[in-house]
Amino acid sequence: VQLQASGGGLVQAGGSLRLSCEASGIIFRINDMGWYRQAPEKQRELVATITRDGSTNYADSVKGRFTISRDNAKNTVYLQMNSLKPEDTAVYYCKSQQLRSDYWGQGTLVTVSS
What we know:
mainly beta; 11 strands
């Protein structure tokens, strides 16, 4: 399974971005999908996850501002990010799970200026 993330960029504080991540390759059934992020000199952290049937989980720091969704027919997960803050600046990685294996995308950089 290969994951291709897109949608990152530079945005001012208070702005919005939408990230997308499409899975391709040999796909049987993708279960959980999610977004993680890693800021400079910090560990990678969970942002949001979504199960195949649409149940979601968010980090406290993004609740009410970010929305994760997915399109199972397109094997794609999205992350709508609103009210962005400078502390949201990080490389965002998507992850998917299939047959008990985790797959990671290459990351997309989100920079929020103050």
